[in-house]
Structures are given as C-alpha cells and as structure tokens.
Amino acid sequence: MTLYSVKHRTQYQYTHPVRFGRHRLMFRPRDSFDQTLLACSLQTSPPPSSVRWIYDVFGNCIALVDIEASSSELVIETRIKLDHTVHVPLDLEMHTDVRGYPFSYDDDEIIDLGRTIERHYPDVDDAVLHWARQFVPVGSSARTGHVLMTLCYAIRESFSYSRREKHGIQTPAETLRLRSGTCRDFALLMMEAVRSLGLAARFVTGYIYVPDRDGDHNLGGGATHAWCQVYLPGAGWVEFDPTNGIVGNRELIRVGVARDPKQAIPLSGSFEGKAGRLIDMTVQVNVTTTE
Fold it and tell me: Exposed site from 74, 194, 215, 261, fewest CB < 10 Å?
C-alpha cells in the first residue's frame, strides 16, 4: 500500500472586488477497498460563510461553498491524504461467459447500466465505430480483456497529449481526427469507442501520481486527471487510463465518476460582475507519496 498526499490550489484574480456565487467542489476521494481516505481539508480566502456536503446522483461527495465577503482574489485550496492499494483486475476474474467478445450483460445489469451503454455523441460516417472495430479480431478468437487493453494502449501510443487551458472537451470524432487532446478528451474517446462495441463505460475524474524518478513520465500531472471505467461482469468497474496506457488503478486516485464528463467538473462557481473582471486563473495540483 502507498500513502498519497494531494494539494489542489485554485486561484482567481479580478480587476476589482467582486461578490461570489456558490462554488461546487468535487475533490473528496471515493472511499473503497483500494483507497481509504485518511484526512481531508478545505480552505478558502476569503473564508467561507458556509460549507455544505451532499452526495450527487452518482454517489460522489460534493462540497457546496458560499462566500459572503467581496474580494479581488479568490483562493480555494484542498488537501487530502489517503491509503492507496494497487488493484489490477485480471482477465481470469471475469465471468467465463464474458471473456470472449462479443457478450451480453444479463437483464438485471442492463437495467442499471442503462445510459452508460448508449453512445452520447454524434459519429459522422461511424468513424469512431470503425476505429474501435479494428481492435476486435475477426472470428471467435476475440478476448474481451485483450480488446480493451489494446484499445487503451492504442490511444497512448498513437495520439499526442496536449494540455489545453480553455474549458470544455472535444467530441470523440474530433479527437480521432486531430489525433491529439487532453486526458479528458482521451477518456471520452475510449468511452464512446467502448460503447460503440456494446459495453458500459463511465467517466472518472481524480488525480495521478507522477513519479519523478526511474525515467517514469506519466502524463497529466500538475492538474486534475481523467480516465474511464468499463463494466465487466465478475471484474466490476475496471479502470482504463488511455492517456498513460494504465489498466487498473496504479498511481490513480479516484475522486468522482459520471456518465458524461460534463457531470464531473472538479470546481465550478460564479461571481457578480462583468466577465472581463476575471483576469487570471491558475491551478496547481501536487501529489506526493511516502511508502
């Protein structure tokens, strides 16, 4: 097991003092058998007038922060500490009848998986579908685990990672055409590719530990990270990080899951005043570890 510490600091600067609307934060990791939250803190400047915690529709823990004071600067800093255990589901852990692709979910699972199987984005000329199908061997030799791992590694090897400052995500078709994108773009591309093959997938937001030694060079450090999960009967929701070609949760800290990336924004909020008053926003994420 490994102890991870995460410091996540966001700073907004304005030309004049402004009043702040409610801010919504998704930063508290999901407790599970493979990660246990040990400590969690939230600080803002100006200090909050109230902090209320809720669970969203996916069971993610959300902090609703209200700030009454006006200011020309807003700083939101969160710190977490957790115990993390590497978990890499093996192909052997899947039910026997789903190890070969294609397979069908049982009726009870279909009801609950619902929209996570349906495709959410237009795919002109079925470009994403055709791209995904190239990873499925012809005939009866297709293995579900191999198809998914090959697809994940293909994004890592064939696409260029590029950090993008502007908000929003690219459509999967756009990412496929450009052959480049952010971690969120790659996660969404894999989700839609997997869904085109009839499997259930969902979006994950969180953090990644980027070792500074032994020549490791994981991408996505210094900010929040994103990847996806695919549901496999017997193995459950399995992590796939196409940005780094990671299968399983190695060096990944899971914070929130959602059907679509728009439902898993780490920080959102508002202020009263003209849009031009916001002159700068900086985000810094530091993930450190002690064995």
Answer: 215
